[in-house]
Amino acid sequence: MKDYFALLDAAIRMQPMPAAYSATVSDIYCQDCGKRGKVPYHFVGCKCSYCGSYNTREMGRLEG
After folding, report:
1. Quick one: pLDDT at residue 64?
2. Of 43, 64, 34, whose CA–CA distance to 56 is shortest?
3. pTM score
4. What is the rounded CA–CA span in Å between residue 32 and residue 41?
5. 33-50, pLDDT tens digit by residue?
């Protein structure tokens, strides 16, 4: 999965979010480590800030 997550990291770097979404934050639950957190929203995926996994579920979204 490490290689796949690296591809997602690259895709997110190459496709910045439009200004309208730049302050949007996702409340996520990581299905790998079981932790919840808030991370920057991106349509490609939301990366867990604890374990680095993209195997996350968006529980809510805060638009800023």
Report:
1. 74
2. 34
3. 0.88
4. 19
5. 999 999 999 999 999 999
